[in-house]
């Protein structure tokens, strides 16, 4: 399980960059936005492989930002917390023995904003980072977690 999580979450990002960066470089620059997780900046009991992989993504991003800046390529990570997705629902089912809705409410309460985020909110952040409006942003960790990392 550990090797599989690392292969998908960490090696997958590395391979994506390996083949994407030369193409973006040929175009004269651009933006790369990598999806990490709140687990990329804090721990989570019972999720060591996942947390290690997402922390590793930050290291890969920061290295890529350093190496790619001379080519006009910006590289950042986005770190979602509780977002209304099937993956988060699966996480809640695995952690809470009570009814799904009770577990979901309990997770929402762990954020400062007391709610789940939406996929559209994550997409808006990613679109901003991909756009020229964020042309001075590189090497950044962008949290979209309702303040959960502060709790």
Automatic annotation (TrEMBL):
User: What's one Pfam family here?
Assistant: adh_short_C2
Which InterPro entries does the protein's record reference? NAD(P)-bd_dom_sf (IPR036291), Sc_DH/Rdtase_CS (IPR020904), SDR_fam (IPR002347)
A single GO molecular-function term is: oxidoreductase activity
Keyword line: Oxidoreductase
Task: List the PROSITE patterns hit by this protein, alphabetically.
Answer: ADH_SHORT (PS00061)
What is the organism lineage in this UniProt record? Bacteria, Candidatus Moduliflexota, Candidatus Vecturitrichia, Candidatus Vecturitrichales, Candidatus Vecturitrichaceae
State the family it belongs to. Answer: Belongs to the short-chain dehydrogenases/reductases (SDR) family.
Mind telling me what this protein is named? Short-chain dehydrogenase/reductase SDR
């Amino acid at each position: 399980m550990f090797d599989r999580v690392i292969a998908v979450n960490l090696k997958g990002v590395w391979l994506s960059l390996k083949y994407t960066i030369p193409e973006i470089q040929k175009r004269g620059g651009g933006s790369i936005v990598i999806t990490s997780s709140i687990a990329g900046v804090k721990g989570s009991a019972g999720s060591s492989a996942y947390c290690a992989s997402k922390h590793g993504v930050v290291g890969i991003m920061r290295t890529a930002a350093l190496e790619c800046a001379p080519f006009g390529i910006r590289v950042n990570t986005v770190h979602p917390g509780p977002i209304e997705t099937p993956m988060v629902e699966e996480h809640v089912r695995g952690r809470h023995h009570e009814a799904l809705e009770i577990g979901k409410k309990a997770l929402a309460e762990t954020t400062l904003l007391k709610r789940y985020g939406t996929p559209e909110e994550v997409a808006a952040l990613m679109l901003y980072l991909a756009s020229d409006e964020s042309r001075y942003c590189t090497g950044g960790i962008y949290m979209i977690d309702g303040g959960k990392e502060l709790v």
